[in-house]
Each structure stands twice: as C-alpha cells, then as structure tokens.
Amino acid sequence: MVDWSVLKNPELKEVVEKAVKHVDKLIAEGKSWRDFEAYEVTSKHWLLRKLIEAGILKISYKSSNHTFYMFAVPLEEVKERLSLLNVSVSLEEEKKTEELPKDFWDVIEGYDDIKEVFIASIKAQNPIHVLLVGPPSTGKSLMLYEIERLKGSVFLTAGTATKVGIRDILLSQKPKYLIIDELDKISSPDDLSVLLTLMETGRVVVAKHGVHADEYMKTWVFAGCNLITRLPPELKDRFQIFYLKPYDKETLIRVITKTLVKREGVHEDLAKYIAEKVASYSDSVREAIRLSRICSTKEDVDKYVNIFRKYRL
Fold this sequence. Notes:
It is elongated, with a radius of gyration of 25 Å. The chain has a 5-stranded parallel beta sheet with strand order 5-6-9-4-10. Helix 1 packs across helix 3, helix 10 (249-264) packs across helix 12 (285-292) and helix 11 (268-279) runs parallel beside helix 13. A hairpin with a 2-residue loop joins strand 7 (203-208) and strand 8. It is of the alpha/beta class and 313 residues long. It contains 13 helices and 10 strands.
C-alpha cells in the first residue's frame, strides 16, 4: 500500500516532482527506460529511502557502482497525487495569507524592522525560524506572546519541554508555530535532537512497536533566550538570530502601558501609573502585569509596590 502522506514533506515532494519531470523528458526523447540515478533528482539519499519505504519508488537496478530508481506506481497516478496535493497546498496558502489580527504587534515598542521580518517569515511558503537573544526587558517575550495569538501556535518554556518532551508536544498538538521561551535552558539531548530534525527536515521520528517511522509537519519555530553561548552551534545555525538591547526607562513605560491597556484591559490612567511605579525600581513587564491583576486603584498600586519593593533582593 502506498503512503502518499509523505509528500506533505516539502523535500520529498520536490524529489518526486523532479523525478516526474525527468521521466517525462525521457518519454519525450523517445527513450525506452524510465529510471534514474540519485544525482538526477536529489543529493540526499535518505529522501529516496523514505520514498521507497512509502511505496512510491523502487530500486530497478543496483551494482557496485550504480543504483537506479523508478516509480513503483504508474506515472499518471503520481501526477494525479501531486496535482491533488498542490490544490490542497494552494488552499492552505490562501488561509495562511489571511490578515493578521488588526492589533498585531501594537504592544511592541520599536523594532519595526524585526516585526517586518517576523511577518515575512509567517507568510513564507516554508518555515523560517527566528531567535531573539537578549537580557530581560528587551521585548523578547512580548514578541513571542504576539506570535502565540496566531491560530495553530503552541507556547512552551524550556522547563515545560523538558518535563513533557518536545516530541510528545509536537505529535499531540501538531503546531504550526512552535514558540519556545528560555531556549537556552533546554538540557535534554532528546529534546535537542527532535528540535534539530524538525527545523531541518520537518520530520518527527516516532518509534512504534520497535519500528521507527516519520511524521511530517510544517512548523515554524520562534524562540527567545538570554544567553546564546549555551546553545550548540548546529541549533544556532538553524535560526535567523536577532540580538536585542534593553528598553530605556521612557520606552519601558510606554511598553508597559500599552501591554496593560491592550492585553490586560486596564484603564489607561491606571496603566500608566503602574508603568511609572514599576519602571522606577524594575525593568520587568511581567511584574507590572502581576501588579495590574491585583490593583483597581492607585492606592492599591502604592500599597503593593511598597510590599514588592520591601522584599526585593
């Protein structure tokens, strides 16, 4: 039985399309053979192995120097499957190009150029992974929270990933956007291996009854971390990396105010009061959010700020 679902993987689909084009050329030239060697369709032999396992290709001839491949199913059936898949992809792209939320990014102060890269990445046909690096209060988490608002997103921290396992999260939720905060705290070799493979090939390797199988998913990875020195080189290489600097005090006040008004529903006057109070002793947007959830008046703010500051290190 042929497993056509493997063609959801862009690389496998591309190999099959090249193979179809190659066979069509042989037919047009009046050649009697319909097979090909790996170099004529791909340089990655594992892709051919996957297509053989799926029943789409088979080995037609093998010697000590050469291996030839051919389709294991009629060429017209392959073309039909590709045609159906392309229609499906077109519909998917239509959905993907739907407008982003009208208030998307409006709590983020500055970084207009990085916002533009994020939007271009989200609208790209294939995943482009982005990593934000910098100390607290640079807007990293706020940007990731904005991505989380998109349909099909899953947000996790490195601590959560370690306990549950990134593979399990991917298989159970199949996210379109995987958002990872504190990426530098991933310590599990298995989590790291799963993430590397996903970002490079879209594959998630699954062991079923002692047999390894692959699931494919088109997933964008957006992440943030404080220290990039903890990340292995092969992981860094899979990201487009942006290094961010902390907000100055005035910008921080504007960021906190916008966040409290637009995401927490706080009245603007109270939001600005909280922002000014927090910015006087801290650069944490999260602290302002916590404060806003227990304060309904400026008197509440003064009371709880005094308590918060009393027990700070």
